[in-house]
């Protein structure tokens, strides 16, 4: 996702010309004011993908990342993720199209109604939540430079599309993520915003799930990172806890090293149901933390 807690754009040989033109500047300015009177239409946040802007090196980076990670994921990722990747026709040959008949959005639309929408940079929380509430996923379109294949602190299209979007093809996860956006949009309470950020972190970004008695990967931060994915499944230093909404929302996280605590779902139904419960509490005004 175009995360709402980051502050900097990429450095190095990033193909930033794709997003730094007047269209991108206007969209970012609108996003920064989202929620003010007259700034409530998510359509103004989005930009064109400008696919012609990808260089041969960009395409090569996608192929290298795809090959390296998908070979591992075939055995270690959730079947829901792998099935979603097939359903949206995620392929190694080229950076995914967000627009047009061969785009991932064409397939997603038919499956769950979610859409992957290009954004010029980071979105503030209000804008980000509003997009999710509409089944629109703010998507970074630029890709990391080849000098940074192994690690990049910011999201790029490999993280956002390869890592996140396949799960959006699953009806249960699709409902969960929209409910998350709706719930987060209803509260201005900082304590709930923090709890919801933790929920996002330990599920959407770094979630594990048990399938057929084996722990598998589904969080995008694991799916899109060779180092983090192996650490999550293989390291003795990782505490893999059973998912529990209250425990997750009370667990703080740090972003600059491999995760020492991860939470394991038993099913995506469990996640959807927990999110529905939380959303009802917010919508009914029963908003005491821990209630
Ligand atoms: Fe992400």
What attributes characterize this protein structure?
disordered N terminus; Phenylalanine Hydroxylase; 291 residues; binds fe (ii) ion; 9% strand; four-stranded mixed beta sheet
Please describe what this structure looks like.
It is a single chain. Residues 1-12 have low confidence and may be disordered. The protein is globular and about 45 Å long. The two termini are 30 Å apart. The longest helix has 21 residues, at 56-76. It contains 12 helices and 6 strands. It has 291 residues and is of the alpha/beta class. The protein has one domain: Phenylalanine Hydroxylase, CATH 1.10.800. It is 45% helix and 9% strand. The strands form 2 sheets. It has a 4-stranded mixed sheet with strand order 4-3-6-5. Strands 1-2 form a two-stranded parallel sheet. Fe (ii) ion binds at residues 1, 3, 155, 159, 164, 205, 220.
């Amino acid at each position: 996702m175009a995360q709402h807690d980051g502050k900097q754009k990429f450095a190095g040989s990033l193909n930033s010309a794709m997003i730094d033109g007047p269209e991108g500047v206007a969209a970012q300015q609108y996003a920064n004011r989202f929620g003010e009177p007259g700034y409530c239409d998510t359509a103004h946040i989005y930009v064109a993908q400008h696919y012609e802007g990808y260089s041969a090196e960009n395409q090569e980076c996608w192929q290298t990342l795809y090959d390296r990670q998908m070979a591992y994921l075939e055995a270690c990722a959730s079947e829901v993720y792998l099935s979603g990747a097939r359903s949206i026709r995620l392929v190694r040959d080229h950076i995914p199209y967000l627009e047009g008949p061969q785009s991932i959005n064409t397939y997603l639309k038919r499956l769950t109604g979610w859409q992957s929408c290009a954004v010029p940079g980071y979105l503030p929380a209000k804008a980000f939540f509003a997009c999710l509430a509409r089944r629109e996923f703010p998507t970074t379109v630029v890709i990391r430079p080849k000098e940074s294949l192994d690690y990049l602190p910011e999201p790029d299209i490999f993280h956002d599309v390869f890592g996140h979007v396949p799960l959006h093809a699953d009806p249960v996860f699709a409902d969960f993520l929209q409910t998350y956006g709706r719930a987060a949009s209803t509260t201005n309470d900082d304590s709930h915003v923090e709890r919801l950020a933790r929920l996002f972190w330990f599920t959407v970004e770094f979630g594990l799930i048990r399938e057929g008695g084996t722990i598998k990967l589904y969080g995008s931060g694991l799916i899109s990172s060779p180092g983090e994915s192996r650490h999550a499944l293989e390291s003795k230093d990782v505490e893999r806890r059973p998912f529990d909404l209250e425990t997750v929302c009370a667990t703080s996280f740090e972003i600059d090293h491999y995760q020492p605590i991860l939470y394991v779902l038993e099913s995506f139904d469990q996640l959807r149901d927990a999110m529905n419960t939380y959303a009802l509490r917010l919508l009914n005004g029963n908003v005491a933390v821990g209630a």
